[in-house]
Structures are given as structure tokens and as C-alpha cells.
Amino acid sequence: MDERLVEAAQALLTGYDTALSRQWREEDRRWRTEDMCWRQKELHFSDAQHTFLEQQRQWRQQDTEQRHLDNARALWARVVEKNRRDVEEKAEQLKAISTLAALISGFALSAFLQFEFGDYVDKSGAVLPLFGVTMALTVRQVCGSQG
Q1: In angstroms, rounded to a whole number, what is the distance separating the alpha carbons of residues 82 and 6?
Q2: What's the angle, vertex CA 53, arms to CA 52 and CA 54, rounded to 5?
Q3: What pLDDT digit, counting tens, does each position of 12-45 carry?
Q4: Helix, strand, coil shares, percent, the chain, to 5
Q5: Helix axes 127-146, 2-114, angle to 10 degrees
Q6: How far apart are CA 100 and CA 107, in angstroms?
Q7: Confidence of residue 7 (pLDDT cuts 50, 70, 90)
Q8: Collapsing DSSP states into helix, strand and coil, what is residue 125?
Q9: DSSP designation for 124
Q10: Higher pLDDT, 101 or 63
Q11: Please, are residues 69 and 119 in contact by the beta-carbon 8 Å criterion?
Q12: C-alpha–C-alpha distance, residues 43 and 37, integer Å
């Protein structure tokens, strides 16, 4: 009877061990299935996060390029504005010089025309050409000092 009792106890314990082992394996399979689902979701989330970071990097690069372009446009606009102001200033100076030269030339011409040299100067001498050269140098000096 001892042997039968030991065999019965051993059979009972073996059956119980087998049942527990089967239950543990099924629980392990469920856990592995659930773990695989979580890993798939984590992989999907990681891909989405990587895509988002890549897009953010591209957006940052495009924004940087756009800022460089905007800075270049602003710099170019300043250079163009400075050149425009310089040209306008030089044009005003040229207008003033031309007005002054016209006035001086007019005065020189009217002085030459109103000069009565008939009785005082010998027309064949060097005084008349010297007078003309002096008037031309006066006009040249005034125009040259303004530029």
C-alpha cells in the first residue's frame, strides 16, 4: 500500500505539475503576444517620432534659408537705397554746377560783349586774345572748383 500511495501521490503531483506548466506556458504565450503588440506600437511610435523630427529639421533648414534670403534682400535694398541717394545727390550737385557755370559764362560773355576796346586797345595786338583766354580760364576755374 505504501507503494500505491506513493505512486498515486506522484501521479497527482505530476498531473498538477503538468497542469501548472501548461497554464504557465499559456500565460507566457499571452504575455509574449501582448509584448509583441506593444513592441509593434512602440516601433510605429518611434517611426512617427523619427518622421516628425526629420520634418522639423527640414522646416528649420528651410526657415534658415528663408531668413538668409530675407537678410540678403534687406542688405541689397539698403545698398540700392544708398546708391539711389548718392546718385540723387550727385545729380543735384551737377544741376547746381551747371546753373553756376551758365551764370558765370553769361556774365563773362556779357562782359566781353559790353567791353569797349575800340579806342583803347590795338585790335591787332595780344590784349584781345589774352582777354578771351582769361575769361575762359575764369569759367574753367569756377566749374573745376565745384566738382
Answers
A1: 110
A2: 90
A3: 888 888 988 899 999 999 999 999 999 999 999 9
A4: 90, 0, 10
A5: 160
A6: 11
A7: confident
A8: coil
A9: T
A10: 63
A11: no
A12: 10
Name the amino acid, one letter, at 88: E
Residue corresponding to grid cell 583803347: 120
pLDDT at 145 over 90: no
Which amino acid is it at 5? L
Q: How far is CA 3 from CA 11, 17, 39, 121, 140, in A?
A: 12, 20, 52, 169, 144
Question: Distance between CA atoms of 78 and 70, rounded to whole angstroms?
Answer: 12
Closest Cα to residue 102, out of 113, 110, 112?
110
Query: For residues 19 and 8, what is the distance between their CA atoms, to the nearest angstrom?
Result: 16
Q: Rounded to a whole number, what is the distance in angstroms from the first to the last CA of the chain?
A: 137
Contacts of 108 (CB under 8 A, 6+ apart): 135, 138, 139
**What is the pLDDT of the chain when averaged over all its residues?**
85
* Contact status, residue 109 vs residue 79, Cβ threshold 8 Å: no
Pair 105, 143: CB distance under 8 Å: no
Asked if residues 96 and 90 have their Cβ atoms less than 8 Å apart, the reply is no
Quick one: pLDDT at residue 105? 74
Note the Cα 137 to chain centre separation in Å.
53
